[in-house]
């Protein structure tokens, strides 16, 4: 108590023993009501974090989805950029039997051959079409066939910038999906993670499939062509005997 | 929590929040599996240029550009000039190499690229030249190896196909174990011989 009868201010003060000094701290903890509020807030935050984690897991963002390919879609006859290469689907033919060149062994099928004609143009550096497949609306996928030599698909053909090449890519698919296909093309190999894939619907209708299957002569595969000038882009469905 | 309590929390924890910034930046920057870093280091991005004598030290050897000229291509059957598709021009680059420091391992996976005025890069021995031969000899994939390991110097010839509308502006050599570093010879497109 001070001489004037008032309490001294609460700080600073010294204790006995070793010289120690404590700063005045108004309050380290909130009053009891606030502590309950803080605990409730922490509990709510915990629930929110756990729930958010559950939502993230629920979105199935596993590695396959997080690193899945980028898809660039476009219509028939229009260039679609697959990052390093522009790809244009020009048309398609169908057949029951194909042959690489006249005199070679014909290749028949229990389904139908679909020959997709594409134009490929590298953009900035040499590139190859390492990935080619068709996919139906149910998500089933068929790779370009290995029963015949594919001149443009794989890593045997090196596309150079500014030099467009046209060629056919050959697929063997079940009869019932031939009119329900999207062709997928890109410069990746089997590993599509983080790669760009061009997707274009395959222009094949029932009439073309019927005509192709009814043809008596094997369909001869077209050779790749350099297209230096810019010819009129062929668009549409074509049956056997293009 | 009261307003005074809120201010106290920030006062007690400001240093921790501040420390989070460099920690996050470091964690992202040093991630060894960073996909971008893996991709970046596989690209030819760090050019190594020639010294005053025109030599580049790269991949355990020295190399110098001898010439970049329109390629004299021949039909192997008739010996007549090879007919390129219209609108295209073939170019031939000759590079002189010094002795390889390690004949078994120097310049592994070497590849030549020709860059045009627009910065586009063209590959060596393109598919379209598969049926042609150089005047005076056959052509095949360019290898960065001497005929005999003890040779002090040797030459390599690279072939390229460009649209006629563009001209070479630089010759590049990459080796897979040297990337992202690559050897780069600048060219003067206007000074090159006409095709």
Tell me the major beta sheet of chain A: 6 strands, mixed
The total tally of domains of chain A equals: 2
What overall geometry of chain A do the principal axes of the alpha carbons give? elongated
Q: Would you identify the CATH architecture of the largest domain in chain B? A: Sandwich
Mean pLDDT of chain A: 84
**Which protein chains are joined by the largest interface, and how many residues does each one contribute?**
A-B, 21 and 23 residues
Shape of chain B: elongated
Distance between the termini of chain B: 81 Å
H/I helix tally of chain A: 3
Output the radius of gyration of chain B: 25 Å
Count the beta strands of chain A.
Answer: 13
| Strand portion of chain B | 25-35%
Helix content of chain A: 10-25%
Oligomer: heterodimer
Compute the CA-based radius of gyration of chain A. Answer: 35 Å
């Amino acid at each position: 108590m001070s001489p004037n009868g008032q309490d001294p201010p609460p700080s600073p003060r010294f204790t006995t023993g070793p010289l120690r000094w404590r700063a005045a701290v108004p309050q380290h903890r909130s009053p009891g009501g606030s502590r309950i509020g803080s605990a409730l807030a922490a509990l709510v935050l915990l629930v929110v974090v756990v729930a958010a984690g559950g939502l993230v897991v629920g979105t199935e963002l596993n590695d396959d989805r997080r690193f899945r390919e980028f898809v660039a879609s476009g219509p028939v006859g229009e260039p679609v950029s697959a990052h390093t290469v522009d790809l244009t689907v020009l048309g398609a033919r169908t057949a029951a039997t194909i042959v690489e060149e006249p005199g070679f062994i014909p290749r028949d099928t229990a389904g139908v051959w679909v020959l997709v004609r594409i134009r490929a143009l590298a953009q900035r550096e040499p590139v190859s079409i390492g990935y080619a497949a068709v996919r139906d609306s149910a998500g089933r996928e068929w790779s370009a066939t290995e029963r015949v030599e594919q001149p443009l698909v794989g890593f045997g053909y090196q596309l150079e910038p500014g030099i467009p090449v046209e060629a056919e890519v050959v697929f063997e698919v079940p009869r019932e999906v031939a009119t329900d296909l999207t062709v997928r093309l890109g410069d990746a190999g089997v590993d599509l993670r983080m790669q760009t894939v061009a997707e274009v619907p395959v222009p094949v209708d029932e009439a073309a499939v019927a005509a192709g299957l009814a043809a008596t002569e094997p369909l001869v595969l077209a050779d790749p062509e350099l297209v230096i000038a810019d010819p009129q882009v062929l668009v549409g469905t074509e049956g056997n005997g293009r | 929590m009261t307003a005074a309590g809120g201010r106290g929390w920030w006062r007690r924890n400001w240093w921790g929040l501040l420390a989070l910034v460099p920690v996050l930046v470091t964690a992202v920057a040093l991630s060894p599996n960073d996909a971008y870093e893996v991709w970046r280091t596989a690209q030819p991005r760090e050019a190594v240029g020639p010294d005053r004598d025109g030599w580049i030290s790269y991949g355990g050897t020295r190399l110098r550009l001898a010439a970049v000229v329109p390629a004299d291509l021949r039909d192997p059957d008739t010996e007549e000039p090879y007919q390129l598709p219209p609108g295209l021009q073939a170019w031939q680059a000759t590079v002189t190499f010094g002795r390889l420091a390690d004949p078994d391992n120097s310049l592994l996976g070497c590849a030549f690229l020709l860059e045009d005025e627009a910065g586009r890069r063209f590959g060596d021995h393109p598919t379209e030249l598969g049926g042609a031969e150089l005047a005076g000899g056959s052509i095949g994939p360019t290898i960065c190896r001497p005929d005999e390991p003890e040779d002090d110097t040797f030459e390599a010839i690279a072939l390229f196909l460009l649209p006629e509308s563009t001209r070479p502006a630089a010759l590049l050599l990459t080796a897979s174990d040297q990337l992202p570093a690559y050897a780069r010879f600048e060219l003067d497109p206007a000074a090159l011989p006409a095709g």
